């Protein structure tokens, strides 16, 4: 009992933070539900069917999220979304169907490689460390520890994010090739997004917090060469 009392503040802080995170996820899913509809673009539906065949699955849902930023995302519940901003650029002819298929393949990579679960586990470790520091360290050290913990957390998230993006890019290259689609589309997609971002003077959402575009392109080129 004494042990439980001693660790009760840590357990309470972790539980509170966990419910906050899950609440945020649920809010995001509700927003996606309210602002999305099923993708109905012919060439992209063919690509999705090819992905199903290559992966040996029947459940692969891609929806259009009615927001302006140019982005693609994989939701924790397994659905994949392309934003209206991205679809609009496709309809304007800025992107072709293979390039949007590369976005879908990339997001499938995040789901298939378990990136959501990995980030949750990292978050649990960070939260436990912060809670322990807050509960047991003296006041002066506690403040420094929290600041250091925040810095380490940001660096860890950046590293995880960049690692995840490289892995998802490589997964997309392999999936595109197995599906009979052009893996070079991953490169032309990144080049076009980077150019579009320069024209706007601000990062495109799909590039934000990701590795530098030229490094991603170089990694994609290596992945193409390795499966070619």
Report on this structure:
- This protein is of the alpha+beta class.
- It has one domain (2-227): Zincin-like (2-Layer Sandwich), CATH 3.30.2010.10.
- Helices cover 72% and strands 6% of the residues.
- It is built from 8 helices and 4 strands, in the order αβαβββαααααα.
- The chain has helices at 2-34, 42-55, 84-91, 97-112, 115-136, 139-178, 185-200, 213-227; strands spanning 36-38, 62-65, 72-74, 80-83.
- The protein has a 4-stranded mixed sheet with strand order 1-2-4-3.
- Strand 3 (72-74) and strand 4 (80-83) form a beta hairpin.
- The assigned CATH architecture is 2-Layer Sandwich
Q: What is the overall silhouette?
A: globular
Query: What top-tier CATH class fits best?
Result: Alpha Beta
What name is given to the CATH topology?
Zincin-like
Strand numbers in spatial order across the main sheet: 1-2-4-3
Number of E strands: 4
Radius of gyration: 20 Å
Number of domains: 1
Q: How do the SSEs run, as a string of H and E?
A: HEHEEEHHHHHH
Share of helix among residues?
A: over 70%
How many DSSP H or I helices? 8
* Assigned CATH superfamily: Metalloproteases ("zincins"), catalytic domain
């Amino acid at each position: 009992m004494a042990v439980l009392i001693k660790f009760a503040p840590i357990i309470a802080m972790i539980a509170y933070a966990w419910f906050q995170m899950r609440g945020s996820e649920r809010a995001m899913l509700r927003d996606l539900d309210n602002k999305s509809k099923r993708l109905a673009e012919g060439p992209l539906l063919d690509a999705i069917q090819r992905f199903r065949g290559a992966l040996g699955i029947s459940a692969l849902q891609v929806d259009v999220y009615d927001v302006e930023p140019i982005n693609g995302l994989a939701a924790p519940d397994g659905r994949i979304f392309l934003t209206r901003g991205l679809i609009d650029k496709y309809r304007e002819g800025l992107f072709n169907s293979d390039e949007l298929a590369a976005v879908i393949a990339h997001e499938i990579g995040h789901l298939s490689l378990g990136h959501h679960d990995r980030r949750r586990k990292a978050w649990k470790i960070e939260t436990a460390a912060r809670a322990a520091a807050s509960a047991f360290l003296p006041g002066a050290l506690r403040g420094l520890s929290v600041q250091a913990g925040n810095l380490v957390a940001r660096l860890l998230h950046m590293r995880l994010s960049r690692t995840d993006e490289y892995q998802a890019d490589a997964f997309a290259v392999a999936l595109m090739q197995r599906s009979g689609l052009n893996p070079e589309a991953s490169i032309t997609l990144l080049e076009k997004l980077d150019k579009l971002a320069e024209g706007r003077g601000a990062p495109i959402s799909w590039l934000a917090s990701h590795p530098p575009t030229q490094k991603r392109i170089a990694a994609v080129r290596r992945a193409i060469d390795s499966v070619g």
